[in-house]
Amino acid sequence: MVRKVFGRPEALTETPTHYCPGCTHGIVHRIVAEVIDELGVRERTVGVVPVGCAVFAYYYFNCDMIEASHGRAPAVATGIKRALPDSVVFSYQGDGDLASIGTAEIVHAAARGENISVIFINNAIYGMTGGQMAPTTLPGQKTTTSPAGRDTSRAGYPIRVCEMLSTLDGASYIARVSCTSPANVARAKRAVREAFEVQLAGGGFSLVEFLSSCPTNWGMTPIEALRWIDKEMSAYYPLGEYKVPKVPEEASQGG
Ligand SMILES: Cc1ncc(C[n+]2csc(CCOP(=O)(O)OP(=O)(O)O)c2C)c(N)n1
Ligand code: SF4
Does the pLDDT value for residue 250 go beyond 90? Predict the structure, then answer.
């Protein structure tokens, strides 16, 4: 008997990728699609996509998708979830989108405890528009707008989104992951599943940040880019769960 051991998730279409070789956007798409399939929620899932390299994400996900303008995805997701409370709503946003132009939207969606899940792609730069400095660019990192390296005395310090949002009472589940090894991909998938499960349980705002590669604008090979994430990015942005839903008291006492 032939046993199928690998295949395309139903929640992904057959569209050929437009992402650059070595870009981890594609791996993240696959992780999200697998979780949607495993939870059996594809027909009631609505994805909200950003501007940036993921602007075409609506071609790849085989569920309802809507485009939001720069940074406005959490506001659009809020509207969809409130109008269709039985839907499963996720936004997919880059760091330029989420941590720069959309800072107010993400902070207030988290503070309001909106019952949505956010997939946040932190590649430390603006990818689609040519590799400019983003709020997440590391100190000293060279970009097209900081050719001598980010100077914190002029450009300030990077924003650690997970650390910041996990201080807000409305945030339920906040985690940072990467896709630099099979083990990290497996951890990342568990985090995305947890985020969706929190939403399905009505638990409120969840966010999974991916440290993601941009070999094209970093001027690295795909392998060098993954190593740079492990060595430099993960040092500034430690991986892990920053906030997990509170266990009700009676449950924690075994009651
Ligand atoms: C309202 C608005 N402002 C600016 C832009 C121009 N713009 C398009 S993509 C982009 C950068 C996106 O970078 P990021 O969110 O980090 O995503 P990445 O491309 O790195 O995945 C910018 C500034 C736009 N399309 N809309
Ligand atoms: S420019 Fe960077 S983020 Fe955009 S698809 Fe290419 S590698 Fe990925």
Answer: no
